[in-house]
Amino acid sequence: MLPRSGDILCVTRSASVQFVEPLYFRVIRVHDWPTYDGWVWLDGYELNVGGDAVERRSIFVQVDGLRQINASPEARAGAAAPRRPGLSTSAVAVRSR
After folding, report:
1. Residue 71, number of CB atoms within 10 A of its CB
2. How are the residues of the chain apportioned to helix, strand and coil, as percentages rounded to the nearest 5?
């Protein structure tokens, strides 16, 4: 599966030999540049153990070697939100504005 903006990934040696030590990476953008089959350029931020961005990077990795830690907000938004009893759909829409 192709990463999306906002995804947090664990990038290891299985994604590219340059990542001997695991790297946690928050995706900003997936480039549509032509590359080798199964490889992709990603722009994003390297994260420290606390989840804070420490360095902006571009990395060239094999998609099959990436491990997703959490999904982007857009991917989560596609899931049905639980409805609260007593609220109509229009009331929920007004409250979220």
Report:
1. 17
2. 15, 35, 50
- Pairing outcome for strands 8-11 and 39-47: unpaired
pTM metric for this prediction: 0.71
Contacts of 11 (CB under 8 A, 6+ apart): 19, 22, 23, 24, 25, 59, 61, 65, 66, 67
> Could you read off the pLDDT of 45-64 as tens digits, one per residue?
999 999 999 999 999 999 99
Residue of 56, 61, 74 whose CA lies nearest to 14: 61
Half-sphere exposure of 3 (CA within 13 A, CB side): 34
